[in-house]
Structures are given as structure tokens and as C-alpha cells.
């Protein structure tokens, strides 16, 4: 009888431009998963809280928040793409399509767009990918690119580097049509009286009032998403070589603070939203660890009409996340997250 030591995940030298991964398993959005994330991240939009409200707006059921859609899709890619990663560097052109409700299933496919070894550090490099999630009917619910820094298994291994254009993926936010026969105004008391399209002014920055402390619960939440990256759950791995890993301790999976920052902003810019349209670019500009307390702000970059919808407008925003860091006798604000976010907002003239 022999001992078989299994290896999971891919290293930098395993990737080739043009590779396509049809990720294993898929994931159905259960009520348990939905509740765990919408409650932990403090989402306040009644579309994700109140089934009567969601159905009155023409949705099939409670609407899965965009941050959870992202997390379910992202986590399916981890085993193949980033289980052996050092850091997720950037989100690019993340767009949302068909609405996701409890009971829907998301399955994901990823194309390798680029592989580039580091010119400075021979033990790592960057992989650039496009991932697309589809529901049980084959409709696209999300598509995004990301760049991730991945370790080599052998610093001397040869990397087949290159770059290819991103495939064209049709993905446009799908919303129920506005129907004058629906009595939307009778439900207006269930959402904030401000935060409509008319209430936001380009150039303003909203400092959201609530904070959220990240506890070791992040490990269980990461597991619920089937995210297998060891840097979020295997302290023994880190203890073998602390200098190799950021902070020398478990790092919180980035999708969790991503979700928390969306939730912290929800009462002011998301509560009267019908959906997020696109995240043009985003990045984790600093690590988050258990014990950190997170806060958020939203800068209103601009406002525009929603094509073909007189009842809606689009707010182009920048969502920033930060944590207080002790400096001497005081505290400084360290930015740990940046996201360019476009939101489909209800117009007060049609809904309130």
C-alpha cells in the first residue's frame, strides 16, 4: 500500500493562454446561503428582505444581492485559478445580467487571457482571466475579468507567457418592466425616503455611518461559498513560512469585505436600487484580517439616464472601503478597497 499525496489547484506554469476551464460542481442559491450573506453583510434593500415587496416589483422572489452573485461565481473559479495564489489584484468589467433568485443555480466557465511571469520575483507571476456565470437556463448572470498573482510550484520552471483578447460576452442587466398598474407608492415606506436617483448629487461623497468588525466567522463564510484557497483557512500552511504570506496570518477572503462594503453603503445608495449594472474596475488595496473593523464611503462621480427607462437613472460611483489603523496615540484611515460601481436607481418621481 502506498501513500498518495494529492495536489490541488494550478500553479503559474500550469496555465496556457486560451485554456478554458469548465469549473466543477456549480452552486444553487439556497435560503441558508442567502440569509447568511445578506444578514452578515447588512444588506438593507427590501428586494432582498421582503418577498412581497420583490414580487410586487415583478421579481420572481427575493433578489440575490449582486455581491453574493459575485461571490458564488468567483468562488467556483478558485480551485482551478487561484487556489495557489498570493493575491487577487484587480476586478475588471464585472457586469450583471439575468436576475438571480433563491433556488437558482450558477455554473461558471473561465478562459485564460494572459500569463505573465514576474520580472522581479522568479517564484510568481500574474494570470489574467475572464469568468462567466450562467443560470440553470443558460442565461448569463455575471461576467468579469480578474488578474491574480499566482505562485510557481518551482521557481525555475518555464512559463508559457502571452496575452489574448477577451471574448465578447453579452451581459446586460435584466429588470422587470415598469408597470403603471402596480401600486409602487404604497410600498414606498418599506425603503429609505432618500437615496433615490434625484437625491444624489455628482461631486458629493457620502460617509456611511455604520461599521462592521470582521471576526473568525470569515472562515465559515468562505467555506459556505466553496472557496478552497488555503490562505483563508489553513493557518498551519502559513506558519511553515510566515514571510511568504501577507501579514503572516490568515487573510480574509476578499469577497467578504467586498460584500460588507456593499452592505455598509446600502442604506444610502443601494436601498432604492433595482440592481448593480457594472463594476468597471476594483481592487483590494490592503489586506483585511480578523479583528479589523470596516467602514465605507461612496463618491458620486456622475448621473445619467437609464436607456429606455424613464423610471430609472444610473449613478456612477466610487465605493471605498477602509479600516482604522492605530498610529501612535491616534487612528489613521487605511484604504483597503476601491470599486467603480454603476447602480440602477429608482426615480422618486415614479416610485415615492
What does this structure look like?
This protein is an alpha+beta fold. The mean pLDDT is 95. It has a single domain (12-351), classed as Hotdog Thioesterase (Thiol Ester Dehydrase, Chain A, Roll). Strands 1, 2, 3, 4, 5, 6, 7, 8, 9, 10, 11, 12 and 13 form a 13-stranded antiparallel beta sheet that branches. The chain is built from 7 helices and 13 strands.
Describe this protein with a few key phrases.
single chain; 352 residues; alpha+beta; Thiol Ester Dehydrase, Chain A; 13-stranded antiparallel beta sheet; 7 helices; 34% strand; globular
Termini separation comes to 72 Å
Q: Oligomer, anyone?
A: single chain
Taking all Cα atoms into account, the compactness measure Rg is 21 Å
| Mean of all residue-level pLDDT scores | 95
Helix content: 10-25%
Q: Which class of secondary structure composition applies to the elements?
A: alpha+beta
Number of strands: 13
Q: In short, what is this structure?
A:
With 352 residues, the protein is of the alpha+beta class.
What are the SSEs and their pairings?
Layout: E1 20-22, E2 27-28, H1 31-40, H2 51-56, H3 66-81, E3 85-96, E4 105-117, E5 124-134, E6 140-151, E7 162-163, E8 205-207, E9 212-213, H4 217-224, H5 235-239, H6 255-270, E10 273-283, E11 293-306, E12 309-327, E13 330-346, H7 348-351
Antiparallel strand pairs: 1-4, 2-4, 3-6, 3-10, 4-5, 4-7, 5-6, 8-11, 9-11, 10-13, 11-12, 12-13
Amino acid at each position: 500500500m502506498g501513500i498518495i499525496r494529492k495536489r490541488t489547484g494550478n500553479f503559474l506554469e500550469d496555465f496556457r493562454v486560451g485554456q478554458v476551464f469548465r469549473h466543477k460542481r456549480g452552486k444553487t442559491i439556497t435560503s441558508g446561503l442567502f440569509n447568511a450573506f445578506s444578514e452578515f453583510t447588512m444588506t438593507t434593500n427590501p428586494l432582498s428582505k421582503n418577498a412581497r415587496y420583490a414580487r410586487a416589483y415583478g421579481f420572481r422572489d427575493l433578489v440575490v444581492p449582486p455581491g453574493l452573485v459575485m461571490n458564488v461565481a468567483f468562488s467556483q473559479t478558485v480551485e482551478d485559478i487561484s487556489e495557489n495564489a498570493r493575491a487577487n489584484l484587480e476586478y475588471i468589467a464585472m457586469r450583471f445580467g439575468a436576475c438571480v433568485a433563491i433556488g437558482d443555480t450558477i455554473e461558471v466557465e473561465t478562459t485564460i487571457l494572459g500569463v505573465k511571469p514576474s520580472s522581479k520575483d522568479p517564484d510568481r507571476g500574474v494570470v489574467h482571466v475572464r469568468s462567466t456565470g450562467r443560470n440553470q437556463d443558460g442565461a448569463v448572470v455575471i461576467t468579469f475579468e480578474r488578474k491574480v498573482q499566482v505562485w510557481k510550484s518551482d521557481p525555475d520552471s518555464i512559463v508559457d507567457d502571452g496575452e489574448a483578447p477577451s471574448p465578447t460576452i453579452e451581459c446586460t442587466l435584466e429588470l422587470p418592466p415598469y408597470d403603471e398598474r402596480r401600486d409602487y407608492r404604497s410600498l414606498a415606506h418599506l425603503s429609505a425616503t432618500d437615496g433615490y436617483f434625484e437625491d444624489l448629487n455628482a461631486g458629493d461623497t457620502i460617509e456611511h455611518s455604520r461599521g462592521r468588525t470582521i471576526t473568525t466567522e470569515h472562515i465559515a463564510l468562505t467555506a459556505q461559498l466553496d472557496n478552497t484557497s488555503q490562505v483563508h483557512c489553513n493557518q498551519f500552511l502559513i506558519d511553515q513560512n510566515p514571510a511568504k504570506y501577507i501579514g503572516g496570518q490568515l487573510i480574509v477572503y476578499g469577497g467578504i469585505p467586498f460584500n460588507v462594503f456593499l452592505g455598509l453603503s446600502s442604506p444610502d445608495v443601494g436601498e432604492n436600487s433595482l440592481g448593480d449594472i457594472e463594476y468597471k474596475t476594483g481592487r483590494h488595496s490592503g489586506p483585511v484580517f480578523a479583528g479589523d473593523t470596516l467602514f465605507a464611503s461612496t463618491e458620486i462621480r456622475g448621473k445619467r439616464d437609464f436607456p429606455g427607462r424613464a423610471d430609472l437613472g444610473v449613478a456612477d460611483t466610487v465605493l471605498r472601503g477602509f479600516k482604522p489603523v492605530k498610529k501612535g496615540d491616534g487612528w489613521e484611515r487605511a484604504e483597503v478597497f476601491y470599486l467603480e460601481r454603476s447602480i440602477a436607481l429608482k426615480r422618486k418621481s415614479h416610485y415615492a
